[in-house]
Amino acid sequence: MAGSLRLARHPERARYVLGFAFNTRGSRVALVHVTRGIAAGYWNGIGGRVRKLETYAQAMHRTFLQQAGVLVPGGWQPYAIIESDERRVHIYRCDLLPQYWKAIHTESDEEVRRCSVRALPEGIYQDVAFLIPLGLNPLPTAVARFEYRPL
Fold first, then answer.
1. Which position has the higher pLDDT, 79 or 68?
2. pLDDT digits (tens, 9 = 90+) for 45-63
3. How many C-beta neighbours within 10 Å does residue 40 have?
4. Closest by alpha carbon to 89, among 140, 147, 136?
5. Is 79 exposed, middle or buried (0-12, 13-18, 19+ CB in 10 A)?
6. What does residue 23 show for φ and ψ, rounded to 5 degrees?
7. Residue 4 has pLDDT above 50, yes or no
8. Residue 9: inside a domain
């Protein structure tokens, strides 16, 4: 199957999504200050756990709406997968038209902020530093896979 990425099946792995919403110029990105889970205390992309019987794409739409108050009209583009023995995270991106970009707001106890991609806030989660530039890559059909193994 040319052009596809084959992933090993790990049914016990926790499934997550992480999304980076950019303005149409790609100069700003929406980030959330996480208060729970593995990224607690850090700025990260917006996302969360995939529910049972929910697809990764459905989870991305749901979590962004819950945390940032916006239903992304054009959909989310997958561009990376991060795996470890415990979890699989599908990484998504989208470009928001000005009316949707301006509508982003905090919907929960986790602050959502529109940040310059050139001046990210202090305390970003470790993967964000490479996931944002990767999400701005002009090759939307490429999907990168990163696998973390125990040290």
1. 68
2. 999 999 999 999 999 999 9
3. 12
4. 147
5. buried
6. -70, 170
7. no
8. no
User: Percent of the chain having pLDDT more than 90?
Assistant: 64
Domain harbouring 65, CATH code: 3.90.79.10
3-state SS string for 64-117: HHHHHCCCCCCCCEEEEEEECCCEEEEEEEEEECHHHHHHCCCCCCCCEEEEEC
Which residue segment(s) compose the domain that 131 sits in? 14-147
Any domain includes 100: yes
Q: Could you tell me if residue 5 is inside a domain? A: no
Cβ-in-10-Å burial (0-12, 13-18, 19+) of 31 comes to: buried
Tell me the C-alpha distance between 3 and 22, whole Å: 26
CA distance 56 to 49: 9
**Location of structure tokens 């990168």:** 144
d(CA 23, CA 80): 20
pTM here?
A: 0.85
Cα–Cα distance between 43 and 110 in angstroms, integer?
A: 10
